[in-house]
Design goal:
By secondary structure, this protein is mainly alpha-helical. It has 16 helices and 6 strands. The chain folds into 3 domains: 41 residues, no CATH class; 107 residues, DNA polymerase, domain 1 (Orthogonal Bundle), CATH 1.10.150; 165 residues, Intergrase catalytic core (hpI Integrase, Chain A, Orthogonal Bundle), CATH 1.10.443. Strands 1-2-3 form a 3-stranded antiparallel β-sheet, covered by helices on one side.
Length: 392
């Protein structure tokens, strides 16, 4: 627990003093009501601000000091979501390399554009490709968010953030930045071919995601206690989801087909995840043992060739990345067209839009804005062809 800075007597001057962020603040005659009132006010401001930035001269605050304070804020704000913190650090890397020692209050449009051009020229170390336009726009949003936070904390003038906020994002086809193809639904034939080769647990995750239209992270985090089975249609209330910080709730609606898939995973503790890598690995080893040709008296005894202290051990929960990698490895090793789990949500959205109205699609997918659903769902080609045939 942090120590509360004390109200003290400064012996030479006879004044009351409090030390905040290694700086003495004189409060007036020691013991006077005014000095104690000023002490309480300074202490409240100190607690409400970033302690390491409190009392620093605002005109002399550097971009590096603002970045350090913002990263401390992000670690608290995002909590266990370490990937978001990593994304912020990556976005701020060119800011640090160019303007770390510059005065934060003097940061403006010219500096913003210089950073953006630096990111445009960057190349991916693995693929050798330049950064995409969407990646650049998202990175610059995080830079602007840092200055918005600094302005909201009173560390820089508000006009710094306002000037940066007015800069338009890079537009498609009007910049040197690389364009990426939009995410399309995955062909059901490709999914079916992959399902035959995936581990049983991961294959069931794919089936459930297709039937519910859920996000990958929602499927990975599903637990027995999240599912209400009191009615014909089960409902799963997702505790941790993408829009929780906006005060929204997320509910999955589970029909008969999906219920049949989930039934065999519900016989475990209420707080345990339904889909677990350790179970998948156990099934894989059991299958290997069933297919064994070598007599038990020869070769390895079951369990004798297992590494006692492996660097990576199958865990108790799939993450959206491990889920995606499992599918990618299966496609690559069997020469199947590459696809990723997020395309399953697009497939589910497209099917919903072709068979139900927009409001129903929004409810199933958990969208509060219909425009988001329209962005996810590919319009059925058959409808357009039918209209063209009628119109002529």
């Amino acid at each position: 627990m942090a120590r509360i800075p004390g109200y003290r007597l400064h012996k030479r001057s006879g004044q009351a003093v409090v030390t905040l962020n290694y700086k003495d603040h004189y409060l007036g005659p020691h013991g006077s009501p005014e000095s104690r009132k000023l002490y309480r006010r300074l202490l409240a401001e100190y607690v409400a601000s970033d302690p390491k930035l409190f009392g620093l001269p605002k005109d002399g605050l550097t971009v590096s000091e603002v970045m350090a304070g913002y990263l401390r804020h992000c670690k608290v704000h995002y909590g266990k979501n370490l990937k978001q913190v990593a994304r912020v650090k990556l976005a701020l890397k060119p800011v640090r390399s160019l303007y770390a020692d510059c005065i934060a209050s003097e940061f403006g449009v010219l500096q913003f554009r210089a950073i953006r051009e630096k990111i445009v020229a960057q190349k991916n170390l693995i693929t050798g490709e330049t950064r995409s336009r969407n990646y650049i726009n998202e990175s610059m949003k995080r830079v602007v968010a840092m200055f918005r936070w600094a302005a909201s904390e009173g560390l820089i003038p508000a006009n710094v953030h306002e000037s940066l906020r007015l800069i338009p994002a890079l537009e498609a086809g009007r910049t040197k930045a690389r364009e990426t193809a939009p995410i399309k639904p995955v062909d059901q034939k490709v999914v079916d071919a992959t399902l035959m080769l995936l581990p049983e647990t991961v294959a069931d995750m794919v089936r459930v995601q297709l039937l519910t239209g859920a996000r990958s992270s929602e499927i990975c985090g599903l637990r027995p206690k999240d599912i209400d089975r009191s009615k014909d249609i089960w409902t799963a209330t997702i505790e941790h989801h993408k829009t929780k910080h906006r005060g929204k709730t997320r509910t999955l609606f589970i029909g008969p087909k999906c219920q049949a898939i989930l039934a065999k995973y519900l016989l475990r503790g209420p707080d345990e995840n339904l889909f677990r890598p350790c179970d998948s690995e156990k099934k894989r080893r059991a299958k290997q043992h069933e297919e064994r040709i070598t007599p038990m008296s020869c070769g390895n005894v079951p369990g004798s060739n297992v590494v006692k202290k492996p660097k990576l051990k199958p865990g108790m929960q799939y993450t959206k990345d491990s889920y995606r990698r499992c599918i990618a490895r299966t496609c690559e090793s069997n020469s199947i067209q590459h696809w990723h789990p997020h395309q399953l949500r697009h497939s589910a959205a497209t099917k919903l839009r072709s068979e139900f109205d927009l409001e129903t699609s929004c409810a199933v997918l958990g969208h509060s804005d219909a425009q988001i659903t329209l962005r996810y769902a590919e319009q059925a080609r058959g409808r357009a062809e039918k209209a063209a045939k009628l119109i002529g």
